[in-house]
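Why do we bother with a discrete structure alphabet at all? Because it lets us treat a fold like text: something you can write down, compare, and reason about line by line. To make this less abstract, here is a complete entry for Tetratricopeptide repeat protein. Read it the way you would read a sentence in a foreign language you are learning: slowly, and without expecting to understand everything at once.
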Amino acid sequence: MPACRFLAILLIALFVNILSAVPAPAAQHSLVDEAGCAACHAAQQRSHAGSQHARAMQSATAATVKGLFDGGSFRQDGQLTRFFRRGGRFFVNTDGPDGRRRDFEVHHTFGLEPLQQYLVALPGGRLQALTTAWDVKGKRWYSLHPDERIDYRDVLHWSRPPQNWNAMCAACHSTGLRKNYDPVSGRYATTYAAQGVTCQACHGPAGGHLAWARGRRSGEAPPHKGFAADLRAGNGQVQTEACGYCHVLRATLTSAYPVGQPLLDHALPVGLPAGRYFNDGQQRDEVFNLGSWQQSRMHARGLVCTDCHDAHSGKTRAAGNALCTGCHNPVGPAAGPHVDTRGLQRKDYDSPAHHHHDTPVSCVDCHAPKRSYMGVDPRLDHAFRIPRPDLSAETASPNACNLCHTDKDPAWAAAAVARWYGDGRRAEYHYGQAFAAARGMRPGAAAGLQRIAGDAAQPPIVRAEALEELAAYPGPAAARLALAALADPDGRLRIAAIHAVAALAPREALREVQPLLADPLRAVRIEAARALAPALPQLAPARREAWLAARREAEAAARENADFPQSWLGLAPLLEATGDIGGAEQALRQALRLDPAYLAGIINLADLLRRQGRESDAEALLRDGLKRLPQEAALHEALALGLIRQQRKADALALLTRAAPLPSASGRTAYLHAALLADAGRRNEAIQVLENAARERGERDLLLALAGYQRQAGDTTAAETTLRRLADINPDDPALGRRP
């Protein structure tokens, strides 16, 4: 073995030993064999046995495989996949991780309908989900990426990490999972108690319940009949978070989610970022249901999953509109006592007087429009929002009306709504307007975000996103909102406030964020530790101990997610804060071993090397990164900054000139390009670069730089116009008080 490879493995092993010193939480109860559940719960078990949950993952047999493995084939972009049987087993012949065609045995089915995927094994204990899937209704093979040409080198190829069952799918398609990834060998030794989502996947380990059931005639009954939590509808947050753990896009913090414990103790869900959601909060990317549901009025009023869905079959409790009219009717709601129905109007909603259509209309067509994922899987938007076609153009978001009336535009739909309900119908300000203005850097952006972040009537998930985005719009009012949110009862808002305060009020952050190192929620503690890492030497001894405890929690989360490069990236600054520069470097290098084209890993490692005076090593790393990612402007920027530090400004200018037209170029690209042009005495060209960029973007630094160069050129009128544009976006911006 070469010495360098041996040293790299040794350093990884040393780092893993550090992580392994963090004890994992003990299980409260033991998992049991569920064969005996039917003795007391026969109806529930029969109902569950036929559900999507129960059959989320199954061994591949003639009874479970729905796809046609008859020797037929599917071709896309020159890639041929053939499906056949051999000795009663199921196989595919397709291109493998090295691009060569060979046979792979199908070990498991994945999903039931409307599509079914198939899992095959690769070395290292990996199970991979094929991206050629079976359309159950259409009875055909199809590609999950029909509009993309994908070969074995592409990150979307079935053999690559995004399609890895162990890391991406197993926790929610099996019960009692232990991923067991070894970062030294890069192998998985994954185990699970059962395939599919079984009784204990939702209720938690049943050892205590079984003991109670066997001896329940004597002694005092334990809480929740021996289970760790009560999932009944009256315990709204417990049930919502138990379901939400798998029905949300999130990062995990622990090896498993113990039912009944706060979600933010074991996971960090994605909020409502651009790209994942439309500006008005409608689902866009594959984000599942929880984020949408947490925007809904029904969630705010106490409604829970099992009010609409049978807990065991997963099916809705009534068909069609009858599910909605159980509560939305002229007589009165049939909701349980846990739901606040005050303010619910009693009228006939399932009638033309409400929906204004001559033919019957489904409630969900208007209030929960579908968006299809994985080609054939339409999913309802669980925010159950009121259609706002009047805002579609402003927010660049779809609306339910035009999803059906595709030959019309939003203005037509908005005019129809005005005819039906009057011009003042739904005229209230919507958070989609704030997000659209902020993401487009339009006039009123800062005020809109402040309005939403400070409105206690808005859903917490919405307010948290407003706080996150407010960090880019500095000012006293924004800082006050962020500081106040550090004490908010909702954990997501406290996390968003930590991020915002670090940007908006860095002096106050050192003092005000410290108490959150002892927050009740693990996710909050970890984010507080990340925010305070640069200021660790300034912390009092007691706070330093709290910081170290939170860092250990972050390390435990990284150990559990050591197969994700993002985990090692997140660990590096925590290690660096305690002076472990070598550990920080090895963490970043491990991220790049997992994904050599990981953009954030390349840039962060180069920056760490620079801070250690290793400028030539940083340059070599960035140049290698550009070979892998030639279209990433951020790599051009990072390399250009390194060249500037080496006084190689002409080389840096040439690099940024090439980066300027890239699709990934940002306002920062234009800012650096202009700065180098101005430094070279080409101020008019610098102004032109900034003016061109400003036509598309209103980024703060870009506008400030443009105003500065305009003033230096003697064009005070143009400079004032530029600064007025910034003032329209954020009148509180402190830079407006010290104009160039």
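What the structure line is telling us, in plain words: DSSP finds 34 helices and 17 strands in the chain. The two ends are 60 Å apart (CA to CA).
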